[in-house]
Predict the 3D structure of the following.
Amino acid sequence: MRRTSARAGAGQLADVPAPQAVEGPEQTPAPAPAPAPAPAPVVQRMQTEFPFELPRGYVDEAGTVHRDGVMRLSTARDELIPLRDVRVQENPAYLSVVLLGRVITRLGTLSMVHDGTVENMFASDLAFLQDFYRQINAEGHTRAAVECPHCSEPFEVELGGSRLGES
């Protein structure tokens, strides 16, 4: 069997010999290795809701104490809408009350949580929720790992955050 290649030079054809079979014991080609399975796509789920427990608890009109709740991550909209609220415009300290009323999704057995609920919480619970809001919306914590410059011992420091709603 002869194979020819493309023209070389002035119209001459070059002859290329065909590979010849080798006589001898029959050899079966080794099976091709199975293709490596495609790596499964890594599905990362972002945690958007965080459970909490109030230090004292919210007391509703019936006298029921509600301590367990859930807060979701804040969106830009959550932080912008309260700025249009007349109460916030008159008293900027009210921003945290309105903002927390938007991001607390569950509190005990209450059917709904709103700024009026947060407004009637104990001051210690409000302070707890403000700190918790900062923690979950600032990449999960307000602490930083550091190392002592003298002894190289690792420890954590609490970072002072800005006021709630001032990202």
Q: What stands out?
A: The longest strand covers residues 49-59. The radius of gyration is 35 Å. The chain has a mean pLDDT of 81.
